[in-house]
């Protein structure tokens, strides 16, 4: 399989891409389980079915950004396998340009166990990448040079792309997900990005971790999402807590909620909204995502997002 390269026009003539999404392409196998943690048993009968669909963190962000009207491009490694075909089909369905670098190890995949309350436990197959994987630098520079912004997933080989991205002058965001505040793998992402998202789930002291990111890195805004407890926003050295938004329907799955939050925040932030206003958009989109079954890959549209924001 040869590399699929998309270079949108002349970067010097304008930015043809609003957001370049790096990494996070793959497939998930969804299994609804009776409870989490799942007690040991020889077997479980899964009446709802076990389904594999395209969509990991980068895919979800790309879909959500596109649903909000942003010109989005996705760059990642993909295998020449059925899973890679699912990812390509997802991008075609949503009209998202995709640059796929061949990955002989195969397309990234995971198994998500989803409980009745929508919580999930993800099992990631880390064999689908190698430490020496690198995005082709000419492709990376061309795409970054044509982009207003780049959102960088934690997946391999995005850490190696950070110096090149910074060299192009494009603004950056990243999502540290459930960082514990100590794992050094996350630090290059945290300190290189202009906007940093993370979950407060594994943080004993979220404010301390957020301020450390702002002090050691270049982040203008640090946002820690906390599910039903809302979100913390650190901007201009001031920490603000935003309450959670009531979901518009019953919560069925939290998978993709953080990605939806990030996409809606970036849409507002790139349109020069304040960090708090951007985070409000994020909480609305994240709450909406929790009402979407794990087997689907859909996102809130711009009109609905604006209506809900106006109501609040």
UniProtKB/TrEMBL annotation:
It holds the Pfam family PfkB. One of its GO terms (molecular function) is kinase activity. InterPro entries: Carboh/pur_kinase_PfkB_CS (IPR002173), PfkB_dom (IPR011611), Ribokinase-like (IPR029056). Residues 61-296 form the Carbohydrate kinase PfkB domain. PROSITE patterns: PFKB_KINASES_2. Keywords: Kinase, Transferase. This is PfkB family carbohydrate kinase.
């Amino acid at each position: 399989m040869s590399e699929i390269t998309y270079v949108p026009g002349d970067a010097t003539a304008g930015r043809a891409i609003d957001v370049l999404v790096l990494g996070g392409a793959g497939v998930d196998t969804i299994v609804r389980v009776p409870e989490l943690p799942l007690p040991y048993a020889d077997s479980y009968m899964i009446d709802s079915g076990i389904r594999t669909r395209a969509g990991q963190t980068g895919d979800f962000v790309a879909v959500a950004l596109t649903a909000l009207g942003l010109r989005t491009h996705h760059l990642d490694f993909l295998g020449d396998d059925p899973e890679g075909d699912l990812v390509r089909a997802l991008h075609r369905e949503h009209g998202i340009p995709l640059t796929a670098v061949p990955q002989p190890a195969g397309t990234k995949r995971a198994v998500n166990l989803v409980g009745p309350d929508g919580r999930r436990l993800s099992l990631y197959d880390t064999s689908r990448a190698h430490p020496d994987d690198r995005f082709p630098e000419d492709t990376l520079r061309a795409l970054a040079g044509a982009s207003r912004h780049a959102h960088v997933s934690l997946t391999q080989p995005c850490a190696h792309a950070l110096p090149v991205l910074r060299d192009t002058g494009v603004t950056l965001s990243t999502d540290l997900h459930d960082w514990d505040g100590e794992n050094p793998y996350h630090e290059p992402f945290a300190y290189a990005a202009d906007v940093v998202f993370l979950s407060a789930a594994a943080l004993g002291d979220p404010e301390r971790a957020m301020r450390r990111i702002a002090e050691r890195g270049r982040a203008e805004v640090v946002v820690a999402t906390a599910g039903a407890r809302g979100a913390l926003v650190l901007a201009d050295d001031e920490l603000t807590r935003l309450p959670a938004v009531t979901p518009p329907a019953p919560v069925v799955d939290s998978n993709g909620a953080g990605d939806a939050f990030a996409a809606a925040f970036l849409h507002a932030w790139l349109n020069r909204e304040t960090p708090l206003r951007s985070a409000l958009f994020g909480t609305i989109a994240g709450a909406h995502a929790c009402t979407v079954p794990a087997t689907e890959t859909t996102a809130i549209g711009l009109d609905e997002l604006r209506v809900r924001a106006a109501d609040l």
